[in-house]
Amino acid sequence: MEEKNLHVRIVPMTADHLDEVAELERICFSTPWSRNMLAEELDNYLSAFLVALDDNDKVAGYAGLQAVLDEGYITNVAVRPDCRKQGVAGKLLQVFLDFAQANHLAFLTLEVRASNYPAIALYGSRGFRGVGRRKNYYEHPREDAIIMTMLVDASSPWTQQLVSMELRIPSVEQLRTIYDRDLKEAFPTAELKPLRNIEKSWAEGWYKPYCLFDGDNIVGEAFLWLGHPGWALLDYLCVSSIRRNGGVGASILEKLREREADTVIFGESEAPEDAPDPEMARRRLGFYARCGLRTAGYDTEMFGVHYKTLYLAGGPVDDAALMEEHRFVYENTFSADKYHKYVRIPIDPKAAPGPKVPWQQ
Asked: Rounded distance, CA 40 to CA 33, Å?
């Protein structure tokens, strides 16, 4: 139990606090956020970062929240070692709880190391409950994450609207419309299959272009590239530009999990260490992790791009089985020459990267 005896002021984080907060990150976490990453959050309208200042106006702790419509994701909570067990984390957390209730958020959620018993106890005392586990989520040392969530207002209008949306297969004309409207806007030309290839694979039974309908309007897409029965590659996940940052992507994945309950859905997400925008790649991986996707034990390389392998399933999937099905999807589509030239499953970390070429080359 924390002894609440340290007087602190909770204020929004500003540029003046960045050096101290970045140092706190280095002290508290094995994979800390950099000063630049923290600075970017000051300009992110979806984020709210707080600092707890002691009587000397030094940062005793800080916490971060990303609010997407009525969903709240607590991204960071850290307290200076000499200020721990004195109520600092609880006071920071309480501000977020008050904010969530005042703004009718549907829920707050976070991840915590499975061995961090004091933090788990603190979150539990504030109404958070363990709802899942992300295997090997943390590194240095590798450890599972416990997902803890607190429902605030499950009856909020936006949550109800997301629940009412329907995931289904579009008509050919609807597919052509969203290909031009959404996929061309969201994906580089080099990563985008020609529409004729998608339509051909669909007609042959190797493709399912799911769309999320809000009434008659399509607000997002999840295209599955089919393998053997019970296996599918998540080829594209896309949200219409006017509906982004509203929980639509997470809703698509949840409905996809329900619709394809007997299917292992796997996919690729760019590896941060080789990505042009490492932070964006990390955030994308974080999004998939929050949505329940697991990270496989092997990486891939497609057309010169290094990817992490992810999958959505009811439980752990053997890497060897996953790799075999992963290869099958590409081998079943590409010529042997094209496959061996551009596809590496798994990636060979000792080999030089392959040529970066457009998908359709």
From this structure: 11
d(CA 51, CA 60): 7
For the record, the structure tokens of 134 come out as: 């992300």
Q: Which residues contact 252 (CB under 8 A, 6 or more apart)?
A: 167, 210, 212, 220, 221, 222, 237, 239
The residue to which tokens 């000792």 are assigned? 350
CA trace torsion 167, 251, 300, 345 (10° rounding): -40
Say whether pLDDT at 160 is over 80: no
Name 325's Cβ contacts closer than 8 Å, sequence gap at least 6: 227, 228, 231, 264, 266
pTM for this predicted structure: 0.65
Q: Is 161 left (phi over 0), alpha (psi -120 to 50) or beta?
A: alpha
Residue type, 156: S
The residues that are catalytic are 111, 123
| Local structure of 298: helix, strand or coil | strand
Predicted confidence (pLDDT) per residue in 233-242, tens digit: 999 999 998 8
